[in-house]
Amino acid sequence: MKLNDRKFKILGLIILIILTIIAIILSLLLGYIKTDFVDLIEAYKNFNNSTTHLVIRDSRIPRTLIALFVGGSLGISGVLIQALTKNPMASPSLIGINSGASFFLVATMSFFPQASQDLLTLVSFLGAALASFIVYALAGGLKGEMQTIDLTLSGAAISALFLSLTQGILYKDQRTMEEILFWLSGSVDGRSIDSLLKVLPYLISCWIIPLVLYKKLNIFSLGEEMAKGLGEKTELLKLFIGIVIIIMSGASVAIAGPISLIGLITPHIIKAFLGESEYQWIIPYSAFMGALLLIISDIFSRFIIYPKEIPVGTVTALIGAPFFIYLARKAENK
Fold first, then answer.
1. What gap in Å lies between CA 234 and CA 212, rounded to an integer?
2. How many CA atoms lie within 13 A of 195 on its CB side?
3. Spatial distance between the Cα atoms of 142 and 239, rounded to a whole number of angstroms
4. What domains are there in the chain, each with its CATH number?
């Protein structure tokens, strides 16, 4: 069902925002230690250093806010990368961006254990950029001959390469392995609010930029040749959007690790309702849908093997893998 009327699109966005707010509240209240609204308010109004108050302030609130912004960023990244590559199976996790950022982070943590959060964020950006460039070059992008299948295969190959290198470092350095194995599965737990605040300006800027460029994205979605015929500087647009994707993906990996398939699922859910060329709506919808999916996945991660938790990246993989298989079969049937 397509939301063709503007009023329905606004109503749909409001409903999505309300659902996200409900998910945020549930994320703050649900977990191994039971809490309620009174505890939530008292943790800030009359903090008493109790276990309940510490859990709310030091765990629940940071992980919920991180899931909100990382999920939103992954959702927008997925939309932009599919728009850029014309590949419905593209996402930061599937074409090597996340694995490149992860490898650079693991290498830095191993060789420079005292590295600051700022340095880790920077190397995450560099890893995402390098992986993107290699995949783009291998897929024929430098020659202007990039095909969907070439991009997918190049992304899979580079992801496997960086994953192997990452595992090699972890095998050599047991201390690093113990510290970041949980993080490598993709997790919003155990992160401080400071780690989010340091990259938040980058994430918010990258949410705003595509909204400003929505008209150009709408034209680009009609086809690159048509966009050029209408006077658009498509190469400049692709470079600019590529940088936005790298920044969002790199920052997300730096905070929460390589969370997979949110960027793949979100665009397909949103476009089922909005169509292909309504980026002024697709981008905000994708931000809240990505955030909603990751927050809900994080809630489930607390209860699947209760009282223990599993990394949220495991939950998103369980949700996203069947969806990926469905897309692959659908593309094959075409």
1. 16
2. 25
3. 12
4. 6-333 (1.10.3470.10)
Cα angle 100, 85, 325; round to 5: 75
pLDDT in tens, 41-54: 888 888 888 888 88
Predicted confidence band of residue 285 (pLDDT cuts 50, 70, 90): very high
Cα end-to-end span (Å), the chain? 22
Structural contact between residues 290 and 266, judged by C-beta atoms closer than 8 angstroms: yes
Which of 64-92 are b and which e, b meaning 16 or more Cβ less than 10 Å from the residue's Cβ? bbbbbbbbbbbbbbbbbbbbbbebebbbb
Model pTM? Answer: 0.88
Contact 87, 141 (CB under 8 A): no
State the amino acid at position 105 in one-letter form.
Answer: L
Any idea what the Cα angle at residue 308 is, between residues 64 and 311, rounded to 5°?
A: 50
**Torsional sign, CA 28, 184, 87, 126:** positive
Query: Which pLDDT score, from 0 to 100, does residue 62 have?
Result: 92
Here the tokens at position 254 are 């730096």
Query: Based on C-alpha coordinates, what's the Rg of the chain?
Result: 20
Burial of 326 (0-12, 13-18, 19+ CB in 10 A): exposed
